[in-house]
Write a structure and sequence with these properties.
It is built from seven helices and 18 strands. Strands 3-2-1-7-18 form a five-stranded parallel beta sheet, sandwiched between helices. It is 26% helix and 27% strand. The protein is an alpha/beta fold. The longest helix is centred in the C-terminal third of the chain and has 19 residues. The protein starts with a strand and ends with a helix.
Length: 345
C-alpha cells in the first residue's frame, strides 16, 4: 500500500465509488459524510424489479455501500463535517465529529495528497409549489414514495390508510422551471417514475396510474424497453397540472390543459406523487471556494476538471445525473486522481 492518501468529501454513491476505485489501487482514503450513515439518496431507493430486473440502480447502491464499509483501506468518518482545509505541500484539514453513544464529540486532524468534492445534491422542496404538499397528506414526493416501497412494499393513502384506486405522478417539479432559474433536467425523475409505476401496476394491476410530463427523458440502461412496456399499462398525459385542490372524500382534484380536447380537463386522484428534481447543495459553493475551484454555475460545478493542486469534483456536485452516470463519473475521476498522484504519468 502506498503512503498516498485522498480525502473524499461526501459519502453518496459518487464518493463511495471513487473511494473503492482508489482503494483497489492501494491508495488510502478518508471519506467524510455529514449524515450518520453513508449512501446518500441512492441508499433510500427501492428495487423496482417486476418480472425481471429493470436496471434501476438500487442494488448497485447497496453493493457499493457494503463494499466500501468492508474495505480496510477506506476510513469512513460519519456524522462528521469538514471545518478547515488548507494547501501547502499537502492538504491539511480538520474534521468535527458529532457525539455518539459510544464516543464523545471530537476533532480529527488529517492530511491528504488530493481532495475529492462529492457533495451530491438535494431535492427540490415543493412546499411553495401550488400542489398542496405539506397541506394535503395524500400529496407526497418521489423520495417519500421510494421510502414507502423500500420499507413496506405496499402503497396506501397517508390520509386514511386505504389503498389508492387512482394515482398520478407530476414530473419536473422544481426542474426545467424558468421561474425558479432551474433550467436543467434532473436526469433521473422520468426513469424513476416510470419504473415505480410499472412496479405498482405489477403488484396491483387494478391501480390506475397517470403520469403528467413535459417530455420523457429516456436515460439509463434498458430504459427504452421499460418505457415501451409502461405505455401499455400506464396513461401518459403530455401536460403539467396547474394546481391541486382537495375535493370530496379528501380526493385530490387536478386541472390541466390538454391540446387534444382544446380545453381544460379536470380529474380526481387518491394520491399524487411529485417528482422533485435535483438542486445543488448550498455547501457545494463554500467547499468549492475553500478548494480553489471555479465558482459554481447555478450552484453546480459544471464542467469541472481536475485542479492543478489536486482538487477533483465527482457526480451530482457537477450537475444532475443518475446512479449509473454517477458511477461512471466517479471511475473517471479516480483515473484522473491516480494520474495526478503519479505525477501525470
Amino acid at each position: 500500500m502506498t503512503d498516498q492518501r485522498v480525502l473524499i468529501i461526501g459519502g453518496g454513491i459518487g464518493g463511495l465509488t471513487t473511494a473503492l476505485a482508489l482503494a483497489q489501487r492501494e491508495i488510502r482514503v478518508d471519506l467524510v459524510e455529514q449524515e450518520a450513515a453513508v449512501g446518500g439518496h441512492a441508499a433510500r431507493l427501492a428495487c423496482k424489479a417486476t418480472e425481471r430486473c429493470v436496471k434501476c440502480g438500487a442494488c448497485l447502491a447497496d453493493q457499493t455501500i457494503a463494499a466500501a464499509v468492508a474495505d480496510p483501506r477506506i476510513r469512513l468518518h460519519t456524522a462528521c463535517r469538514l471545518t478547515e482545509i488548507r494547501r501547502s505541500d499537502r492538504y491539511r484539514y480538520t474534521l468535527a465529529q458529532e457525539p455518539h453513544p459510544d464516543r464523545p464529540a471530537r476533532t480529527l486532524p488529517g492530511e491528504a495528497d488530493a481532495v475529492v468534492l462529492a457533495s451530491g445534491f438535494q431535492t427540490f422542496d415543493p412546499s411553495g409549489k401550488p400542489y398542496g404538499y405539506g397541506l394535503y397528506p395524500d400529496v407526497i414526493t418521489n423520495l417519500e414514495l421510494e421510502r414507502i416501497l423500500r420499507t413496506t412494499g405496499g402503497l396506501r393513502r397517508p390520509s386514511s390508510g386505504a389503498e389508492p384506486a387512482r394515482m398520478a405522478f407530476i414530473q419536473c417539479v422544481g426542474s426545467r422551471d424558468a421561474t425558479l432559474g432551474h433550467l436543467w433536467c434532473s436526469g433521473f425523475c422520468c426513469a424513476a417514475a416510470v419504473r415505480a409505476a410499472r412496479l405498482l401496476k405489477h403488484r396491483r394491476p387494478t391501480l390506475a396510474i397517470t403520469i403528467f410530463y413535459i417530455d420523457i427523458q429516456t436515460f439509463g440502461r434498458d430504459f427504452e424497453s421499460v418505457y415501451t412496456r409502461a405505455r401499455e399499462e400506464v396513461r401518459f398525459v403530455r401536460a403539467i397540472p396547474a394546481d391541486a385542490f382537495q375535493g370530496e372524500g379528501a380526493r385530490l382534484r387536478l386541472t390541466w390543459v390538454e391540446t387534444s380536447v382544446q380545453g381544460a380537463v379536470e380529474e380526481e386522484f387518491d394520491l399524487v406523487v411529485l417528482s422533485t428534481g435535483m438542486t445543488p447543495r448550498p455547501q457545494t459553493a463554500t467547499l468549492a471556494k475553500a478548494l480553489g475551484l471555479a465558482p459554481p454555475a447555478a450552484g453546480f460545478i459544471a464542467g469541472a476538471g481536475p485542479h492543478a493542486d489536486g482538487a477533483f469534483v465527482v457526480g451530482a456536485a457537477r450537475g444532475p445525473m443518475g446512479i449509473a452516470d454517477t458511477i461512471a463519473d466517479a471511475r473517471r475521476a479516480a483515473w484522473q486522481i491516480v494520474r495526478f498522484l503519479e505525477g501525470g504519468r
